[in-house]
From TrEMBL:
The keyword Transport does not apply. Keywords: Membrane, Transmembrane, Transmembrane helix. The keyword Glycoprotein does not apply. PANTHER family: UPF0603 PROTEIN YGCG. Residues 81-203 form the TPM domain. The chain crosses the membrane at residues 28-49, 55-74. It comes from the Bacteria. This is TPM domain-containing protein.
Length: 385
């Protein structure tokens, strides 16, 4: 359904939150420090033994030293992202691992990825891998997800643990794979496809937040398998236009945008888009799932305020500040018509892991007028009175 990987769908997944970087630094520090501590303990044990100290003292100390010395090299369980064929760049694999670790911390979901070649029957492989490694068994029973991609068979499967079957039903999993993930795979953006799909998984998990789903650990085969469409190429964009009356207001343009998303119209040349937005979207991936999500978001986001620049050439529409998942929308007047400026929004509006929007104040440019007097915290999130 599109062209390049949609940064809008992916940018909201990795926010660079301070907690993530602290966790990563802590992991690196532990790997470096633990062997040093072990070496120190071993040296102390040898000195004590040389001075004639009894075994009851230096024996356990020496054993602890050996354990610490060897700990970085003890066998570990499967990685969060196991790429057996080198399909992902190192940076992409790290991005996925970082975000999936945060998914576990925020929602208690153990999400793993295996990319391989000639894995055999994908359904059986997924169930066996799930059970063999006890995915989802470390916290709440059965709260595991396993994405398996076989590049030789060109197939993908998302396996769902027992504890999540009520949240991620087969129809939802098939929708994520067909309408989001494989749209990116088709244009060679595997990592972006996985990340964009995880965004839908997070949204679905949040709808069930707090629900108790008792179940046995492991997986019984819930999920969906389908063609991965690797390298298939982009499909042609929609050519349908939107009809909008002369003299349409920014409110009218936003309503037309919502209708276009409801109709899954991915035409990058829609008359409601500004010049910079059309240029940006010409090389963009816009998946059916993204358009469905946008339509739902717009339906649930009322406009509370309209702010106009001093030269009357730009407008910002704002939802109530308390509606933290309803971002501001930017409009620019080109000729005699108002156009939606998604390109300007992409520069200035960011989203946290919980999909709350924040501002990059330095990137607001000509839209700064819309946020004068708005209280922001240190990270650019509006402060709710």
């Amino acid at each position: 359904m599109g062209r390049r990987a949609d940064g809008a769908a992916v940018a909201g997944l990795l926010r660079g939150e301070p907690r993530r970087h602290r966790a990563l630094r802590g992991g690196v520090l532990a790997v470096a420090v633990v062997p040093v501590v072990g070496a120190g303990l071993l040296l102390l044990a040898l000195l004590l033994a040389g001075r004639g100290w009894r075994l009851a003292w230096w024996g356990p100390l020496g054993l602890a030293a050996l354990v610490l010395l060897g700990s970085p090299w003890w066998p570990r369980g499967p990685e969060l992202v196991e790429d057996r064929v080198g399909l992902l760049a190192d940076a992409e694999r790290e991005r996925l691992s970082d975000y999936h670790a945060l998914l576990g911390a925020d929602h208690g979901i153990d999400y793993r990825v295996v990319i391989g070649r000639e894995l055999g029957d994908l359904d059986r492989f997924a169930v066996d891998h799930f059970r063999r490694h006890g995915l989802g068994a470390g916290g709440d029973a059965g709260r595991g997800l396993l994405l398996v991609l076989d590049v030789a068979a060109n197939e993908v499967r998302l396996e769902v643990g027992h504890g999540l079957e009520a949240v991620f039903v087969d129809a939802f999993v098939a929708y994520v794979e067909a309408r989001q993930m494989t749209e990116f795979f088709a244009v060679g953006r595997v990592a972006d496809g996985i990340l964009a799909s995880t965004e839908l998984i997070v949204a679905q998990a949040e709808t069930a937040e707090g629900e108790v789903l008792p179940a046995l650990a492991g997986s019984g085969g819930a999920g969906a398998r389908m063609p991965a469409r690797l390298g298939e190429g982009a499909t042609a964009a929609d050519e349908a236009q939107v009809v909008i009356a002369d003299g349409a207001t920014p409110h009218d343009v936003l309503a037309a945008y919502r209708r276009a998303m409801q109709q899954r119209n991915d035409n990058p040349e829609l008359a409601i888009y500004g010049r910079e937005t059309r240029r940006m979207l010409a090389d963009w991936v816009m998946t059916p799932a993204q358009m469905d999500n946008m339509a739902r978001s717009l339906a649930g986001c009322p406009v509370a305020r309209e702010l106009t620049a001093a030269d009357a050439r730009r407008v910002v529409l704002l939802a109530p500040v308390a509606e933290r998942r309803c971002p501001p929308y930017f409009f620019v007047r080109e000729g005699e018509a108002w156009r939606l400026d998604l390109a300007g929004m992409m520069q200035a509006v960011r989203f946290g892991r919980d999909n709350r929007w924040r501002l990059e104040v330095g990137a607001l440019g000509p839209y700064g007028f819309g946020f004068e007097g708005m209280a922001l915290d240190a990270n650019g999130y509006p402060v709710v009175p």
